Amino acid sequence: MSPLSMSPLAAELHAIIAASGPIPISRYMEICLSHPIHGYYMNRDPLGRAGDFTTAPEISQIFGELIGLWAATVWQQMESPQPARLIELGPGRGTMMADVLRAAYALPPFRSALCVHLVETSPALERGQRERLGDINVPISWHRSLAEVPAGPAIILANEFFDALPIHQAVKHADGWHERLIDMDPSGRLAFALAPQPSLPIAARVPAHLDEEAEPGAIFEWRSSALVKELATRVCDYGAALVIDYGHADSGLGDTLQAVSRHRFADPLAAPGEADLTAHVDFAALRTAAGRAGANVHGPIEQSVFLRRLGIEPRAARLKAVAPAQAAAIDTAIARLTGASATGMGTLFKVLALGDPTLGPPPGFDA
Ligand code: SAH
Q1: Residue 89 Cα, ligand 1 centroid: separation in angstroms?
Q2: CA-CA to 58 of 20 to 30 Å: which in 38, 93, 246, 346?
Q3: pTM score, two decimals?
Q4: Is the peptide bond prior to 8 cis by the omega test (within 30 degrees of 0)?
Q5: 245 lines ligand 1 (CB under 6 A)
Q6: Does residue 120 have its Cβ closer than 6 Å to ligand 1?
Q7: Taking the domains of the chain in order of start, what are their residue ranges?
Q8: Which is it for the CA torsion 130, 133, 164, 230, positive or negative?
Q9: What would the pLDDT profile of 26-80 be if each residue is shown by its tens digit?
């Protein structure tokens, strides 16, 4: 491929690889998603039917409303601190926060205690969030990272956030685990490659039972645990966090890196910066890292179980009673959020809660 026919981001990746050699998949993901000018999230709204993918809050208002009631109950468990920070990581279009805050009207002292903090790297999405939440009568501030949010009692929400954080991959060979890299092939196309030497620090990350079961060629994925540790430290400073994402309850082997464009799977290397890149969340790894950092860890449980325990069915019935014309659409949305079929999110998506060790189990985890 000639550099002239490439997108600006592909050309930049080629230049980086030509100058300093193949790059880890984590660096590739980071550049594709967060490059300040050409990164996927930086200059577009990828959500909704006209975009590349849809998320639970965009499917039904009930999702965010139930999370709002969850947060209100957690705030009471925390003995109603004033002020209380409500932090959301990667708020997308601001839809979930709008629904959370509407549900918070049910508990006026909670709503009036709230300071909302949105952690968002994308200027384009931040603009949309400011529009969506502009006339809501609660103080809201925006931050580029969680570290910028002031300390203090907090409830933290993250829906479909961790899946966008960069992953590393390694491949098992007879001599050990080699990091999987991205290189250029002789025709100038981006292609997967392997680090020539096996890595002992990588081997040390692979759980012993997976190392034993891994055949030659097996792939193991991991993410930096820095952010989950930061969440755990914050909740121990008083509060709780709710992490909802697609992924697996136990660590496993396999390549889950995926590109999605216009609601279809795409080749992750074909159009850097033009498609969403994500990978399954390893909830066992989150559990371990958060537990080591001192937090109480609850779950993961399946999204269908969590939403049912929070009362999605009676809430849908009430909504249908006031809006009978919407009944079929509401049923479809609930089936999508809780269903176990290929398009359903009920079992693929998991929910994990972290809390200060003095707090009891949050709603949904107390069964
Ligand atoms: N939670 C929303 C959006 C999910 S898409 C929903 O459920 O609809 C992922 C979101 O995380 C986007 O808002 C994206 O811009 C943001 N994001 C991705 N990586 C980020 C990072 N490292 N820091 C902060 N925000 C990030």
Answers
A1: 7
A2: 38
A3: 0.97
A4: no
A5: no
A6: yes
A7: 3-39+168-222, 56-166+223-355
A8: positive
A9: 999 999 999 999 999 998 899 977 888 999 999 999 999 999 999 999 999 999 9
